[in-house]
Amino acid sequence: MNPLELTGARPGEAFTVAFDGRPLRALPGQTVAAALWTAGVTSWRSTRGAGRPRGVFCGIGVCFDCLVTVNGSPNQRACLVPVRPGDVIRTQEGTGRDDG
Amino acid sequence: MTTAERPRLAVVGAGPAGLAGALAAAARGVQVTLVDAADQPGGQFYRQPAPGLGARRPQALHHQWRTFERLRDGLERHRAAGLITHLADHHVWCVEREPGSGALSVHALRGPAQEQGVTVRADAVLLATGGYERVLPFPGWTLPGVVTAGGAQAMLKGGLALPGRTAVVAGTGPLLLPVATGLAAAGVRVAALVESADPAALLPRARALAARPGKLAEGAGYAARLLRYGVRVLPRHTVLEAHGTDRLEAVTLASLGRNGRTRPGSARRIACDTLAVGHGMLPHTDLAGTLGCTLSGTDVRVDDEQRTDVPGVWAAGETTGVGGAALALAEGHIAGRSVAARLGGTAPDPRRWAAAARARARQRAFFAALDAVYAPPAAWADAVPDDTVVCRCEEVTAGAVRTAAGPLGASDPRAVKLLTRAGMGWCQGRVCAPAVAALTGCPLVPERRPFARPVPLGVLAALPEPPPG
């Protein structure tokens, strides 16, 4: 069983996005975080201080742990931002100011 | 009555409380604008997969789906009739009340990028802003793969996404049950459900429980499903540590003694790639706080009509005290009826909502009983090691907070923040506040946050000038 089977989902056509230079498959309607989780990726930020990896924590836009750089814009909450065909998603390093 | 003549209500939040309030008010001739951050109504409780995912059975991830269908159909009817305007994907950052006229302005940011400002004006506001999960720190809780229990559920309900293959669900509170069964139903191996409280302690509080036979049946239903999925339930246990280098690989559990401390020699390690953890819920009270509404502890204080002590401002649901969806529905309904009467210039007759008032009283008593049982272990703050990060945004350790509160003399979380930056980061202390308060030896008091979310300077600059005087 998986969540798609459980809910009888018939998603729209999958598309490709790039994560740190490698292609990933994503489904329409998913957030950036959901697409990354589905591809087996759980971290996409390194912290400003200790450079530690982070990913989803609260999942509802409260904690800001899942910040990511999407199409050159850093500090996007991956759990809120919908994934779009051709998105270029990059691990956010620190403040993300050098990710653009 | 034409649209222009009807009194206007802005409802902030389209979860159970907001929907119930919007429907009750619209049915009584109020022109309602429902402002909500999500792209579909339902809030966190009735979060659904995005339309693009084509889920034909979203109810497989929910219970009480029928209730939601009724709310959704009611919303559609009122929308078609022009009585409710639903502003989805609108993120409210402030509600202002003009002191003279009492007119209310709801300021929101539109779109996923939250860069475009929108202002909704109204004669009354219903705050139905819901809540979020409290998570207390422990070593390894910042590792990827450690998520809040509600977060794991939200990602599953909304994105049909799973964080891994083998999960431990841990912490305390009734939310852990649907999270464990939901993950198991979706194909995750749930290695253990670790609850620090002893749910058997609910039995002496049988009076509040006996009033809620439906809730007992719900609990029994979860127990049967946990058994069916082979989930081991470990009451009076806690997660001591999450292990891994760049992501979660295992957790160490231990059993708790009567004093709330771990039993020596009881620690054991369980391999897992996911830890879904939570220690109860906290209300979102930022908007109410900025409006000047009096809070009682962490909750917005309301009267029997769900009115706050600021004229024109009502509140319902988790923001007035965490108590679940059924309580939120009752409170929202009462609020909507009260708004309709008050904006029409009459005092409402509470006998008209007697059934909702009884449901509200029962649910509040039931959650008070749950609250007394599902509490974190008494000594949890003492057990946090000095090198554990407490403030996830600013990477401030428990040791730094203790130093600020001890040798440096900080006597409250605000002083600790100034000395350590704990609570100064992106989340504005929403995540770390319970831990910082406990480590400082203070009760948890909601911080005043004039902006409920980050606002671009351009949006602020574009706001109209306030009237003179």
UniProtKB/TrEMBL annotation, chain A:
Signal peptide: none
Pfam families xref list: Fer2_4 (PF13510)
Molecular function per GO: iron-sulfur cluster binding; oxidoreductase activity
Protein's UniProt keywords contain Glycoprotein: no
Keyword terms, alphabetized: Oxidoreductase
InterPro entries named in the record: 2Fe-2S-bd_N, 2Fe-2S_ferredoxin-like_sf
Protein name, as recorded: Proline dehydrogenase
Organism: Streptomyces lucensis JCM 4490
Taxonomic placement: Bacteria, Bacillati, Actinomycetota, Actinomycetes, Kitasatosporales
From TrEMBL, chain B:
Annotated FAD/NAD(P)-binding domain residues: 8-325
Organism classification: Bacteria, Bacillati, Actinomycetota, Actinomycetes, Kitasatosporales
Molecular function terms from GO: oxidoreductase activity
Entry keywords, A to Z: Oxidoreductase
Oxidoreductase listed as a keyword: yes
PANTHER family: ANAEROBIC GLYCEROL-3-PHOSPHATE DEHYDROGENASE SUBUNIT B
Domain BFD-like [2Fe-2S]-binding as annotated: residue spans: 389-439
Gene3D superfamilies linked: BFD-like [2Fe-2S]-binding domain, FAD/NAD(P)-binding domain, NAD(P)-binding Rossmann-like Domain
Origin superkingdom: Bacteria
Name recorded for this polypeptide: Oxidase
CDD domains xref list: GlpA-like_Fer2_BFD-like
Coiled-coil ranges (or none): none
InterPro entries the record matches: BFD-like_2Fe2S-bd_dom, BFD-like_2Fe2S-bd_dom_sf, FAD/NAD-bd_sf, FAD/NAD-binding_dom, Metab_Enz_Cyan_OpOx_G3PDH, Opine_Oxase_asu/HCN_bsu
